[in-house]
Amino acid sequence: MFDRAPSRLSAIKDDVFASIVVLLVALPLSMGLALVAGFPFENAAAVGLISGVIGGIVVGLLSGCPLQVSGAANGAAVMAAVFIKDLGFEVFGLIVMMSGVIQIAAGALRSGPVFRAVSPALIQGMLAGIGLLIFASQFHVMVDDTPPGAGQEFGGVVNLWSLPLAIWKGVSMEAHQRAAVLGLLTIAAILLWRRFAPNWLSFIPAPLVGVGLATAVAAYFALDIKYVPAPDDLLAAINLPTTHTFGRIGEGAIWAAALSLAFVSSAESLLTATAVDAMQRRTPRTRYNKELVAQGIGNFLCGVLGVLPVSGVIVRSSANVTAGGRTRLSTILHGVWILLFITLAPDVLRIIPVASLAAVLVYAGLNLINLSFARFLWGQDRIETGVYAATLATVVATDVLTGIAVGVGLAVARLLYTFSHLSIRTEQINGMTVVHLEGAATFIRLPQLAALFETLPPGARVHVHLNELTYIDHACLDLLANWDEQLRSDGGELALDWDALHGLFRERARAAPSSAVAA
Description:
- By secondary structure, the chain is of the alpha/beta class.
- It contains 21 helices and six strands.
- Helix 20 links the parallel strand 5 (461-472) and strand 6.
- The longest helix is centred in the first third of the chain and has 30 residues, at 8-37.
């Protein structure tokens, strides 16, 4: 059931207010993520904001989830950094265009819901790894330094390993101290605002408060630090594809990059849309294929302009829902406000300290590491915890694509093991053969199960416990039925615990965890 529909005028007012709140959240994150991706310092702010315009206006108009807000996202920004480092800026736009076409095709083929069939352990492990990468790289930027792992093999590990050096520079070297203080001031303001903000001001996003305070302090003391560059000509930040660029379309590495970007962007968008559905009842539930096509069109345009790819972002989407957004108008308007901001007020960007934006991303990176999910997973399923840990470690040590591949491989291996492993244990109790089946009783283990029954004497009394089974297929059920007839014809009996099996499945269904992506 949906919430009671407000009047048209009231809905418009709610949407306008929500769009301003989302704008305040999107500004610092959009600019900072372009720096994470490795775009040239002088163009980074404009690149991130142009992506925000496309995500707001274009994707917002076409979206299958009206209240979801799209824009530059943490996961895609880290992947962009890898693609730019390995393949170069000249083909980055082509990769994003191709990923958009793949998403459009997937939506047209009605495969949107398939992208949701991803292990929560894999997604959370990927996000935690991305969070560590963002934290490690942006901590160096927060002290006005360059991440030492930038452009290097195992760059994430290098950035993590060198964190003590960054701390030392921020504490002891005058050239870095001022930026470090502003970064810590930004994080402190975010934490304090979230904790102590009065209710009538709580709609103001904490990152904006942190960046605003740091900007005011830097301006008051005229600090000699790095500030966000804003190009006088917005077109200077656009990198249109060339004929030479399209000549590389047949390279396998470019196709691998486009497929991985399409997968990650689609999974993040659709899982975020699911979370938005769970947060509100103001709009119909997400149309996943339509959402996938909308994201693909947005990414195709981002690729044409050579800017960051877009996907549904939980931080902005939750801000939209919390602020009272009613229709897709709030999403579209936030994109319009960004466009007006970068065309009419670019000088505002030039007074924002880079260290403050980096601090916002340091905080955001840490928030991507969902420790409560990890603890829950450890208590519920140690194998899934292994998938989580392996994905996280591989993303940090190598790259996002390899991390996803490792996670998918482990998840598939676990699935194959689960559907092929069957443990059979027997014991004699008061003249009855008691059989305990644990695992999956499938046709693969049919010979093993048949061999057990063939050892039984005629007229045996058998009790088969099914409560430890995770699955039983028709072939095994048919075998049990045949042996039931055989034993009864010889004066024996076969007892099966069907009620215990049904109760176990009902219990597991109630205990199944729900999860959502935060980015």
